[in-house]
Amino acid sequence: MAMHRNTVSPKYRSIEIQCNIDTRQEEKAQSGNENSSYFLYRMVVAGITVAGITGIQGNDSNLLNTPYDATVDYQNTLYVTDRNNHRIQKYLMNSSYGTTVCGNGLNGTASNELKYPSQSLVDSNGNLRVAETGNSRIQLFYNGSLSAVTIGSVGALIIANSYANNIVQWAINVSSWTLLAGDINGKSGNNATTLNHPTDVTFDPMGNMYVVDKYNCRIQLFMSGQTVGTTIAGIRSHAGHDSALLNSHISVHLDSQLDLYVADTSNNRIQKFLRY
Questions:
Q1: Residues of the chain with pLDDT under 50
Q2: CA atoms within 13 Å, Cβ hemisphere of 183
Q3: Architecture per CATH, 5-273
Q4: Residue 237, class by beta-carbon neighbours within 10 Å (0-12 exposed, 13-18 middle, 19+ buried)?
Q5: How far apart are CA 183 and CA 193, in angstroms?
Q6: Cα angle 85-144-5, degrees, rounded to a multiple of 5
Q7: Where are the annotated NHL repeats, by residue (predicted)?
Q8: Whole-model pTM?
Q9: Around 198, how many Cα atoms within 13 Å sit in the side-chain half-sphere?
């Protein structure tokens, strides 16, 4: 299950929306709606490694071990959930060396320890919320503190329903979910309307949805209210380690400029895809 991020920044500035006519026509054909209009955000195909070294595991300050998540604050400081090192690493802009801000590198249950963390969120005050798979808890680390308090939360959920191959919304006090993307019956696929083991989802300020389509080796963009996706990072069904490919990626995040950060887990790196 993915914690839903709501990326809204006072620094948000307008971006150019480019229209790809050929892709739009293809999507019209797929959707069966000739009156539909798809305006596509364009991403640079090749990713930039901003944390970790491709294919190398480790616990030094410039290495990662199975990173599961990446999030960015309003100063474009990067926070990486370094799962198998049981820590959260903080990277200042343009630095390839991280500082441990949560956890001490040991697998444990104490308030200053983490056990297989899977996701982290940073708020405008620099406080970090960390989801721990191993301890089945969410830990709140106040800005500057190395010890956490265990917290809980309620609200509507956006769920990356991995084994059902879809993204759903489940409101509190409602007995069923609403399909947002993927197949309603849980069938996997690799076309524009299907997913294969999605693991994370995030939204931009316009309500457009970005989905980690793990086993299809791609990031899919679903425009607000649409169920036809467009691949904006990775290449469908092609895992790899060069700058245009992904391998068992887990999570996705947008910064205040709507550049895309992907936790490229099996490559032990964080990839940044620039918007243009």
A1: 1, 4-39, 153-154
A2: 15
A3: 6 Propeller (2.120)
A4: exposed
A5: 7
A6: 70
A7: 64-94, 186-225
A8: 0.68
A9: 35
Strands 166-170 and 137-141 come out as unpaired
269 contacts 228 by C-beta, under 8 angstroms: no
Kindly report the number of other CB atoms within 10 A of residue 257's CB atom.
Answer: 14
**Where on the phi/psi map is residue 122: left (φ > 0), alpha (ψ -120 to 50), or beta?**
beta
Identify the pLDDT of residue 27. Answer: 41
Give the pLDDT score at 233.
96
Domain ranges of the chain: 5-273
pLDDT digits (tens, 9 = 90+) for 225-274: 899 999 999 999 999 999 999 999 899 999 888 999 999 999 999 999 99
Give the pLDDT confidence of 50-67 residue by residue, as tens digits. 999 999 999 999 999 999
Place of tokens 């990072």: 233
- Which residue type is seen at 67? P
Question: What region, left, alpha or beta, does residue 27 occupy, with left being phi > 0 and alpha being psi -120 to 50 degrees?
Answer: alpha
Cα 102 to chain centroid, rounded: 19
Q: Distance between CA 255 and CA 72 in Å, rounded?
A: 6
